[in-house]
Design goal:
- By secondary structure, this protein is of the alpha/beta class.
- The protein has 25 helices and 34 strands.
- The strands form 8 sheets. Strands 15-16-14-17-18-13-19 form a 7-stranded parallel β-sheet, with helices on both faces. It has a 6-stranded mixed β-sheet with strand order 5-2-1-4-3-6. Strands 20-30-29-21-28-27 form a 6-stranded parallel β-sheet, sandwiched between helices.
- α22 packs antiparallel against α23.
- The protein is globular.
- The structure holds a DNA duplex (12 and 12 nucleotides).
DNA sequence: CGAGGCACGTGT
DNA sequence: CACGTGCCTCGC
């Protein structure tokens, strides 16, 4: 056992395989699969993952691996298998699959340095020597910026300098210095007595260390307790009476919070009925996927908690996935409240270091439950007992970069590895999931009643075209405005929801219809009030706001697309007495801002909560009795076959925020297309009818769940080259695929140009196409050669969610 | 991805 | 024929 087979951190097609390295003597037997190692690769050093250990190698000459980066494997065997599966499923590089499973802090940090050979300091050219005054190494970048590279290169050749490559992990473990008694308590007592009379500070500190239950305190803690300063502590340490030790600690993002311990609630009859088959599966150690289909407020979370309880009592672990956007403090509280310190939380609000720490808690088996966003599905547990995906229909479970995986598929794969159940929970399941439940692939569990005897809110749909005809040009319909006033009087709370996805704010000339466009992408520029500029969301292009129309010189420039700020202003005009909290990217970008705003609203410091998607989920306050949706149809017109489904889901979610407790709730949905079935049916909260109707539409369009999709996007600076390549690919596919499959395109992408690159796409619809992965791989391999020679980029998304 | 090699071009 | 610029190939 002395050869390690290693996947290197070089994401290209040619290096997407294992490379063999011999393991030098001191590491033999200590290098294990799943460890990160540093290996020489070509002239430099890179990070790699040990995939396996073997005796022999095909390779002619082996290099030694430099050293391991970990003491124990960071990926267990099951995760290594999962990486193979991910690679196959999403057609990504093995290295990308491995990296996505680890916190970003564990990615490699590369540094290239120039080291001085000390014996040669004297013979260096003057300019080069200037760089090495008082030091023996200079970063490559520094040398480059000084414009000294050609000179230094000569010196390197002459052997006066050396190039050195270093590989480090980005993340740092946080440590703290703690002080301990260096001698016995008795000795300390003696010391106190022998100290001069005026040294009362030192005496107090020593007294503290004598009486302290367990020593091992930070300098600040000791100083505060004894009323001394850190200098005193240091003096005592220098005398050899105290000793200091550097200890590793976890960053604790929840340090300031106390979690109220909760115990299992009595289940309703419905919940009882739903949980029974889950518990049975856990007991029998079988894999099964459940769809927990429960209306908003029906108590799905309690079913999750009690299912986890069962797993927990068996000594097994649980993963709970939650959409990033609803990983709110309220949600975290519920899990921490039940399972206390046995819960790790992974979400984007944490710093890289905090995420790393939470991850290490999991790896060291210090926690049993992980609550996190998409990538938490890769939590390094080894004895998984259950996986839960809340809000199963959320599109954020699909990763939009490589590896383009869907957490739902990953969850099912992992659950099969451990013979444990998956619970998919939603009030508005994705069509794919519900169809599978109907077919019996998933087991359907239903919760049809609200807890707290809350009734579903009554919903009224307002036709904004009528309002306009009636002379109301404001963004509030008469009905919504009256209800707003009413709540204000009663002291009840309102949530106003602004759906901005699709349309963002843009500016348009009212005389000639000119809309500011990005010069590099075929998309309108978005108006950013904060910086008073126009920005492109795709390439980052930024320009000033035109005062007059560049086309016709008109001064009638109008700002379109109601942003939250604009609504806020209008509210201030119409209802000056109302206290409004606005939640959008601007007000929540600071760490913890999201939490503070919600808390403040929950405590009744405001009458109206105004926001974008981020307030659609999870929000659960008893005093909310009115929900207003200002423009329900903005995303209905996106070029996406899921737009009706997304609209229905969003409206249903938002409506579910009202009347969750004693007070009955009302919902007002404003729209320009009240006749659309997704809006009409969201109004009556009728998922089943929506499902039927939408399934018909999908069947007619040959879309999922009737067909699978794969999307190929081709991009290049030259439009002709793109079209040419896209046509070739389409022809190739048509020739290779079975006649039952449909190949659409090539057609320009919905955003035909991004960053000066034209984009064409080709969509494959298929029911059964076992050869497709290998066909797609061929296309990718072929494109690799083209990429070098022509600069073509081809990306493939299996089961895409974004058609852009 | 990033280095070193090599096939060209320019300038002498 | 020395040296610079850009493309191609290779990496255990």
């Amino acid at each position: 056992m002395k050869i390690a087979s290693v996947t290197v951190d070089v994401p290209t097609m040619q290096t997407d395989r294992a490379f063999d390295y011999s393991i030098p003597e001191p590491w033999q037997g200590k290098i294990l699969p799943g460890m990160r190692v540093i290996v020489p690769f070509g002239p430099r050093k890179v990070q790699g993952f040990v995939m396996g250990i073997k005796e022999t190698s095909e390779a002619k000459k082996l290099k030694n691996l430099v050293q391991p980066m970990d003491l124990t494997p960071v990926l267990n065997e099951d995760l290594l298998h999962m990486a193979d599966w991910l690679t196959e499923q999403t057609l990504c590089f093995k290295i990308s699959a491995l990296q996505v499973m680890l916190p970003a802090a564990m990615k490699a940090k590369y540094e290239k340095k120039i080291i001085l050979n000390p014996a040669k300091r004297e013979v260096l050219a003057e300019e080069a020597a200037a760089l090495f005054i008082n030091k023996e190494e200079v970063s490559w970048k520094e040398a480059e910026e000084a414009g000294l590279l050609p000179l230094l290169q000569k010196e390197i050749k002459a052997g006066h300098l050396d190039v050195f490559y270093s590989v480090k992990s980005k993340g740092r473990k946080k440590t703290v210095q703690k002080f301990y008694r260096a001698v016995s308590k008795e000795k300390l007592q003696e010391e106190i007595e022998s100290l001069p009379a005026n040294a009362d500070k030192q005496k107090a500190v020593l007294q503290f260390f004598i009486s302290a239950e367990n020593d091992g305190v930070t300098s600040k803690e000791a100083a505060d307790a004894a009323g001394a300063s850190s200098a005193t502590i240091k003096a005592l340490a220098d005398k050899g009476l105290l000793m200091k030790k550097q200890e590793e600690i976890y960053r604790n993002p929840f340090a300031h919070k106390n979690f109220k311990k909760t115990s299992p609630l009595p289940l309703t009859e419905e919940q009882e009925k739903a949980i029974t088959p889950i518990l049975k599966t856990i007991e029998e150690k079988k894999h099964e996927t459940f769809l927990l289909y429960g209306v908003t407020g029906s108590g799905k979370t309690e079913v999750y908690l009690q299912s986890i309880q069962e797993v927990y009592e068996q000594g097994k672990e649980a993963i709970v996935l939650v959409p990033e956007i609803s990983l709110t403090p309220q949600m975290v509280d519920r899990f921490k409240g039940r399972f206390g310190n046995d819960v790790a939380v992974l979400h984007s609000g944490l710093s890289a270091g905090e995420k790393y720490d939470e991850w290490r808690k999991i790896q060291r088996k210090e926690v049993k439950v992980v609550v996190g966003a998409r990538s938490a599905i890769f939590a390094p547990f080894e004895n998984l007992g259950i996986i839960i995906i809340d809000e199963e229909h959320e599109t954020s479970y699909k990763q939009e970069e490589n590896p383009r995986y869907h957490a739902r598929d990953a969850a099912i794969y992992r659950a099969k590895q451990y013979n444990c159940p998956v619970i998919l929970g939603s009030a508005t399941p994705s069509l794919e999931t519900f169809a599978r439940a109907q077919k019996g692939v998933f087991k359907l569990l239903t919760l049809s009643k609200r807890m707290n005897s809350g009734r579903l809110p009554s919903v009224s749909i307002v036709d904004m075209r009528e309002e306009l005809r009636g002379g109301n040009r404001s963004m509030f319909s008469e009905e919504l405005f009256e209800k707003l006033q009413d709540r204000l009087q009663k002291g009840e709370q309102t949530v106003l929801f602004l759906n901005r996805r699709g349309h963002s704010s843009f500016i348009m000339c009212r005389d000639c219809g000119y809309v500011a466009q990005c010069p590099q992408c075929d998309i309108s520029l978005t108006y950013h009030r904060f910086s008073n500029s126009m920005k492109c969301h795709y390439c980052g292009y930024e320009t000033g706001v035109p005062q007059t129309c560049p086309e016709c010189d008109s001064e009638h420039i109008r700002y379109f697309g109601t942003g939250t700020q604009k609504v806020e202003e209008e509210l201030a005009k119409l209802l000056p007495e109302a206290r409004v909290i606005r939640m959008d990217v601007d007000t929540t970008s600071r760490k913890g801002a999201h939490e503070r705003l919600l808390e403040s609203f929950g405590e009744g410091h405001a009458d109206i909560l105004l926001g974008t998607q981020m307030i659609a989920k999870g929000l659960d306050f008893p005093n909310i009795t009115l929900v207003g949706v200002l423009s329900a149809d903005t995303m209905l017109h996106l070029p996406d076959f899921r737009s009706a489904e997304k609209t229905f889901q969003l409206l249903t979610q938002v409506s579910g925020r009202a009347g969750r407790h004693k007070l009955p709730g009302e919902v007002v949905i404003q729209t320009y297309t009240p006749e659309h079935y997704s809006i009409e049916l969201a109004g009556t909260q009728n998922y089943d009818t929506f499902y039927q109707k939408e399934m018909m539409m999908r069947k007619m369009g040959s879309y999922p769940p009737f067909y699978y999709l794969s999307l190929i996007t081709i991009s290049h600076e030259d439009l002709l080259k793109v079209v040419g390549a896209a046509e070739k690919i389409t022809k190739f596919l048509q020739a290779k695929l079975s006649p039952q499959s449909i190949v659409l395109g090539p057609a320009a992408s919905p955003i035909p140009r991004i960053n000066n690159r034209y984009r064409y796409q080709c969509l494959i619809k298929y029911k059964r196409e076992p050869e497709l992965p290998s066909i797609l791989k061929t296309i990718l391999e072929h494109s690799q050669q083209q990429k070098a020679s022509e600069g073509l980029t081809i990306s493939i998304d299996v089961n895409p969610y974004m058609m852009m």
